[in-house]
Write a structure and sequence with these properties.
homohexamer, about 260 residues, alpha/beta, Rossmann fold, four-stranded parallel beta sheet, 10 helices, about 10% strand
């Protein structure tokens, strides 16, 4: 069920019987020479909308702009500051509580939002208003991703490329995929950009000339489909799991 | 040009030659028994995207949730608080300035956002970062609206009904349009809800049982099309006018 | 009853029997070549103090500086930012609740404060602390004003000129009234300063060389007296109406 | 010169030749059974307006409500929170800088405002916007006060009683002056209310049943007049001293 | 008992039987040519830790950086802004309430923190979360200090010099003590730096070339010991007094 | 060089020749039945102070309380909220810039601070005030830790146990180390506590009964020494590397 498409009387029975909502969030930021700036929010929206269709839970409109200051040197990147993002998401989520929603899955596809969503989730849970958790598709199928890609890359790499090839192929510049790999940073892991243990980079441009990481030539729509469906299945299961929890179990424990 | 669909290298020439962006904003809130909750952001997005197509100016993704506390008693209304909304819009707009945008049209379709967008516009202008103005379609064709509808109604009335009939007819519950009129408040003007000059209502529910105002039976997709095209033409002209202004003329005057 | 003149033991019986207070607010900002900068707060104070005398309700001291950034290019305009103004008024109003006040009329005479007072009123009502509404004298007698003046002008026009002529005639530069009209903007209505529907001005100086709007030569102390007494009567009736409402009726409705 | 009484063209020459303003601030709070709640702002306004008359410097309208949470248990006390007060005063003062004011004297008559005004003064000075200092009349004539009163009392005592007897005698309940003394706390000094060095009280009511301190029977209008004139003379001298300082000398020193 | 040294199971019985904590606070700021920058927090920590040992009450770690903008022109001074300091102390103190602490003594040794701690104490008390009071050692033995030193000086004078000579003699540059006196401001009292009653200085450097006040040659470790032990005794008594108060007696009085 | 021990004149030459500072940060929070609550700040301080000794760079006092809401159910945990922590660290760091510091290493030993320090580092870098980076000892020797411990555990495990055994052995309850392991969660990795990819836990108590993770019986002071010295060596090298960078290279890149 997609909230924005419904008239209010048609939502009444949902709120009477269910208390879960899916909130998609992404970013609008550079994703290399081959992918659209909307990559993250296109992915998040696709997962949340499909999961809502499969499970019957409610999906809200997408928050399309997130915390992306690290891409600001590339044309077109949009961003809000971290405190503003947190407050916006918190306020928006609280408005769902007016209707009885007490658990939310932030269907997120932008790494730069993760910690902020977690901070918002803590605020809401500590206030005992809501139990909100963050889900990223690639975290739900980490093993499969390791198998499929040699260098998945955390940004604009073959993972995201495959998904956009599958979900919105017309937005992919297929003819630039080799350039994407060659002009970016192919190998990137937890130790990249660290000096004696300290992360010394702040911006994407500190690491990569064209804004992307990994080897995009491993990507294809077929792989995208497989990964999307596998992660979607995880998300649907998460919905069912979360809906089944008693609210008290989701709230903070008492002091010892 | 739609920012989210473009890869960053393809935006470079735009930012080199132009400095205007269209930012669509609406709300996700009850619009009566017959219209979808997304009414306002559907309308805003349609205007902004079409104007971008017609004129070639850049359109950003849509801010779908606005300031709607006055509809919170109706199922499904989403909202953020006014201070949070202002900060979110300001921060998002400032990120466009990184790329050279110095003038923005907030293509807005929610009355509850107007004063907040104006406050943000003032902040940005007084800081000499940006000239941002708010545009609502019905303000651009007020005479025509007066002619077409006896009781246009500021919320969920025939104006908005017609537009959604035209833009997303499948989301309109045509069979509830008489109910919309009969269960709402048919006559509403500046003096409605005022007591000895003071506005005494705060929430939609203080005035109207089903959340809407005006006589929706005057609405039709054909009227919607006419109004949409007329207002779109105004918006396109506004884009051209704004793009033609020297930046200094848009900035605050000196002290006397 | 004027709060500032009373010793605390003399307020006890008021708070025992009544729960309404009048809070006057205005601005200190340019009002053209002929009117004092205090015009708005002089008017607000006169209405609130007189209404308190007539009805016996409590009047607080006046907030003399409001939100006036749009007049900052003219010598002497004082202002606070909108967020600061809202917080100041909210905090001040909350302190009245300590003594049992649960309904407030903001007797306001500055257009630039209106939306901010409404936002504060919403905060207080949503928190179920207080029911506070904004009242402007000219909104209470709109028909009579239309009859009396051809071009009332929203700022420094014949409306405000008449009132100051009546209330504080010694502060009016009668010899500059023609200059006021000729050096300002005579005709001003909702469509003024709009381009294709968008309000494109932010500051008074964008529209008017000397800071005022309307035809001041229609003003006189006699007209001022008539309008003042007519609006005062509305305010007194509003006090009685508001005092008579059960508190629960003033608070937000339940969710449907 | 009183800003609120002037039309903007008449302020031009002042701002061309002078850069000092007097801003009166007080409180609206209980002052015992015998004095009006407006005591502090009445006193502040009297000093600032008279000093402006004597010296020709500019005086702004009065901020009548300050930081008075410690009196909230007594009927009628108004207050704003400390952060809100600081932001309001800062914002208001910054608006004077638009016209060239670069030095301000906060003519303050409420002890509870002192540290907050000092904090605001620091902000403005460290930002190199303005040099603003706080002045309280009794701090300018401490020796004379020690001579005149045995127990001056910091709140509602003979000092403030004398001044109101002189400035607004009609607001003093002369027949309650003995009660004021007998029902309050007669002796109060720096060590009062301290336990082993720690200030253990927060509210006036922790110390005094009727809200006042000192022996009010030593007060008279004649003493009030003498003290007022003596302190006024100090204030006028302060104005002249401050106006004579080069702006650079008022700004922060360089780092060593 | 020192909180940071304990494992959590060993704190359980304390929180079951007691509800008081000592929180030491100081500054890290210049203290003249002869004393270490840590002077204030070294003193605060010594008092709090010793009092905890003597009485058995709980002591937390020390907040070593406070509000010291007035020393920023001298090498090494660290500081946080006043609003940030207040929020940090408030938040930290609230976390103690999770474990049942409902009364706190801020063992403070920096004058620049006093009013801020008092503001935090008010917030916590008005919220009925906690009763927190500020204690400075020299305020607890004012008579003895007057006897011992001719010119105690509020900053870097013989008071603080003696204490550091006693507590951390190795950090005192004994060979610079005469320079400290001669290069600083020997005489300093409430009237210093006032002009016609107004405090006109903001920074230490406005008054003193080397950052200190008073005659340090009167200091010695022996005097330091005597003063420390005398004030420590006061602090221990304060702990016992505070622990003995019923919580309701520490909370705000009802409105009259 | 330890800032708090120095008198201001002795810091002058440092600031003339160097512009780097080490700021230690930790937490005060439960670390299981066997370790002191100060574990994190003891470790951070030891690294920062030793690195300062070895390299000659400046070390500031330690921030002992961090962001630890996830341990609040265990006795004694202290914490500040995330926004307050960020603002405190930012403000404190900015005060170092007054003296010419333009690069800072946050020597951090609390995982819960990491993202917040990174957010502060971004603010400071984007404002071009300072280049500040976060360093955690275990991130600098990840391979060695993998070799030494089977289950290092991110909190209160053998890593932290070893270090405290080495640095402050008297604070370790050796007789509870088996209990620590048996009453905690032995195996913990990135997938722990995740449900279909989402992190579903917020508090330590959601995962572990006694608050700790890993197998503490692998710990010893000897291992602690080895790890400490190895990581210290990394930190010293980081200092030298950072000091050698030209400031411009540390600042953000230009827009493409």
């Amino acid at each position: 069920m997609y909230l924005a498409d419904e008239a209010w009387p048609d939502l009444e029975s949902y709120f009477e019987s269910e208390s879960l909502a899916l909130v998609p969030l992404g970013s609008t930021e550079q994703h290399g020479p081959h992918l659209p700036e909307g990559t993250d929010h296109i992915i998040a929206e696709a997962f949340a909308r499909r999961a809502a269709e499969e499970t019957g839970y409610l999906c809200t409109p997408t928050i399309t702009v997130g915390v992306s200051p690290h891409h600001r040197q590339f044309h077109g990147t949009m961003s809000v500051t971290a405190p503003v993002f947190r407050d916006y998401v918190e306020s928006l989520t609280r408005s769902l509580a007016e209707h009885g929603i007490d658990r939310v899955i932030y269907v997120n596809a932008h790494g730069g939002n993760v910690e902020h969503l977690r901070e918002v989730g803590r605020r809401l849970r500590d206030a005992e208003v809501m139990y909100a958790i963050e889900w990223m598709w690639d975290e739900s199928i980490t093993d499969r991703i390791q198998e499929v890609f040699e260098t998945p890359g955390p940004h604009g790499g073959p993972k995201e490329t495959s998904l956009i090839q599958y979900l919105a192929g017309e937005l992919v510049h297929e003819d630039r995929i080799e350039d994407a790999r060659d002009g970016g940073l192919r190998e990137f892991d937890e130790s990249s950009g660290r000096v004696h243990g300290a992360r010394t980079f702040y911006d994407a441009i500190d690491n990569t000339d064209n804004g992307v990481l990994g080897d995009q030539t491993d990507a294809s729509a077929a792989v995208g489909e497989e990964l999307f469906e596998a992660a979607l299945d995880q998300l649907c299961q998460l919905c069912e799991w979360l809906a089944a929890q008693p609210f008290e179990d989701l709230m903070p424990n008492e002091h010892l």
